[in-house]
Design goal:
Blueprint lengths: L4 E4 L2 E11 L2 E8 L7 E4 H11 L3
Antiparallel strand pairs: 1-2, 2-3, 3-4
Length: about 55
Amino acid sequence: MVGDVYEFRFMRWEVAKTFWRNGEQWARLKCLTKRKKPWDVPMTFLTLMEKTRKVS
């Protein structure tokens, strides 16, 4: 999972690390397109978007 690249909000985001929060696994995304703040999303979100928005 770490190193995967997704396209959201017209930008490319790379999974920098995964971690657990309140019993659920989350991923920290870093933006590859612009200088944006890291974005924390639940892993369930990435699995739903994996089919349509995964770049690599």
